[in-house]
Write a structure and sequence with these properties.
Distance between the termini: 27 Å
Structural class: alpha+beta
Largest sheet: 6 strands, mixed, barrel
Helix content: 55-70%
Number of domains: 2
Shape: elongated
């Protein structure tokens, strides 16, 4: 029996029971759709994480005060007074391969401009912070090292705060108050979007770290030190040199835990990617289970079809149909069911991804490779679960089949 002839016979047999065929395909449709939607969400989230990691800057190493635990007490990063101005100068002076270094202190405060106010994050940094974080200006200038030395009352404002305080007007040259301290806006930053954790990068006011520590927060130590290496290739040795230097300056004996913690962009990206991959595999596993359930449904319906058409099979064999012809006929019926369900499932998965993107603003990225793999998997499901019913049909005794009522 030729393939096209077998396909036509199989297709006509399925059309005789449209409702049953449609219900049988639902398992494959939902399974393939779930695979496509899951992969689209996973790929979209991965691309978004890569983009957000890139917004942190290039070749960035972050040294946080404090570690996971100390003396049996758990501390969050930045909550211990272990990073000082001496550490900052030592890193600048003694670590090779460092391009820029900036300390960082941070707190949330109310900022007032005329009759408007906003509650925002206040960052105390040095001018090197801006190239480290690849931050560019929309208007004005950055503050300078001279401003840092004088603890000057100047600030650079983020777009979100600027819009809230000045309604989209010109911010440069305006005066804002943080508590009772007036700061003159010398620059407005271009928008940077949201961070990996979902917080708004643009919801900020950046001032010289000396001004923040002396005039606003009353701090004597840093929450974090931002370091930019000269290239990606030397990030690991720079990180190790920083660790050795800080252990020496902090006089930490061998065998004791560090009182600081070092992160790199690669570590953050790797952690985020692992989380995304875990969720992707979990959801993908659920989708594959749905496909297998759909395959069991195909097997069940094909077994029923073999029973219903036993006399038809006997007549075909009596007219000269060979065992392999009957096997091919029923196998093609099963594969037709699964392939049709797979194609519809791909369309359903793409539509679900688009709906999620439009309704929830979740990033999705539909991969042609994922569509091909999902379709091939649906074909495999049809072959695997259709083989037993097809084999059973091909092994019927023609005489017994003709006698079947």
């Amino acid at each position: 029996m030729r393939f096209l002839g077998a396909f036509r016979i199989a297709f006509r047999a399925l059309l005789r029971n449209k409702t049953r065929a449609t219900l049988t395909m639902l398992g494959v449709i939902f399974g393939v759709g779930a695979v496509i939607a899951t992969v689209s969400l996973g790929d979209g989230a991965r691309v978004m994480v890569q983009q957000q990691i890139a917004t942190m800057g290039e070749n960035v190493i972050l040294v946080y005060a404090g570690n996971f635990s100390r003396g049996g007490v758990s501390y969050g990063f930045g909550n211990m007074p272990t990073l000082t101005a001496e550490d900052l100068e030592a890193i600048r002076r003694e670590i090779p391969g460092v391009r820029n270094v900036s300390p960082e202190v941070r707190s949330s405060r109310q900022v007032i401009a005329g009759s408007q106010n906003a509650y925002t994050s206040i960052y105390g940094v040095s001018p090197e912070y801006f190239p480290i974080r690849s931050w560019t200006l929309k208007d004005g200038d950055f503050f300078t090292e001279n401003d840092v030395r004088r603890a000057a009352k100047v600030a650079v404002i983020g777009k979100t705060v600027s819009d809230e305080l000045f309604n989209g007007g010109i911010a440069v040259g305006q005066v804002v108050r943080v508590g009772n301290v007036p700061f003159t806006i010398v620059g407005e930053l271009n928008s940077k979007g949201t961070s990996v954790g979902g917080s708004d990068y643009d919801d900020c006011l950046l001032v010289p770290y000396t001004s923040a520590m002396k005039r606003l927060f009353g701090m004597t130590s840093f929450r974090c030190i931002n370091i930019q290496s000269e290239s990606m290739e030397i990030m690991s040795p720079v990180q190790e040199h920083i660790r050795e230097l800080l252990r020496q300056t902090h006089k930490i004996p061998a065998g004791r835990d560090d009182d600081f913690h070092i992160h790199t962009q690669e570590e953050i990206a790797s952690a985020m990617s692992q989380t995304q991959e875990t969720m992707r595999y979990l959801l993908g596993g659920v989708a594959i289970v749905s496909l297998l359930v759909g395959g069991i449904g195909i097997m069940n319906i094909m077994l029923v079809s073999v029973t219903e058409r036993t006399r038809e099979i006997g007549i075909r064999m009596a007219l000269g149909a060979r065992t392999r012809d009957v096997l091919a006929q029923f196998l093609i019926e099963a594969v037709t069911l699964s392939c049709t369900g797979g194609l519809i499932g791909i369309a359903v998965g793409i539509a679900a991804s688009k709906i999620l993107t439009a309704a929830k603003n979740w990033p999705t990225l539909t991969s042609p490779q994922a569509m091909v793999i999902a379709f091939l998997f649906s074909v495999a499901v049809g072959i695997f679960f259709g083989f037993y019913p097809a084999r059973k049909a091909s092994r019927l005794d023609p005489i017994e089949a003709l006698r079947y009522e």
